[in-house]
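Project standup — Tuesday

K.O.: blocked on the structure for the chain from last sprint. Re-posting the sequence here as requested.
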Amino acid sequence: MPADRITLKNLVFYAYHGLFAAEKELGQRFEVDVDLYGDFSECARGDDIDAAVNYADVYALVREIVEEREFDLVETLAHTIADEIVSAYPVDSVTVRVRKPGAPIGGPMDYVECEVTREREA
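H.V.: unblocked you, prediction finished:
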């Protein structure tokens, strides 16, 4: 894995993903972490935003996927985010973590989390 990493940590959204009708109707909180891996030395050397991964754009993409689309599974949500980031941005790989603190599992817990890593195909 490349040595350089940019992390967007604990992006928080309200969305309507889940298997149950109540989840789709009432919605709930989702938390997302995104780790972008690549060689970011060119933008660092030149202090050049045009050579960098614009993480505001990455945030906007994640927000659109989480808030504007609907999925039954957090696994599908995490895979979609990872696939679209690695397709849209000049990164070698991405790791996405999606947390669902209010998952209806019938007992106390902090959250359910799905972690997905995607690498750019050579």
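K.O.: great, moving the ticket to review. The chain has a mean pLDDT of 94. The first strand starts at residue 4 and ends at 15.
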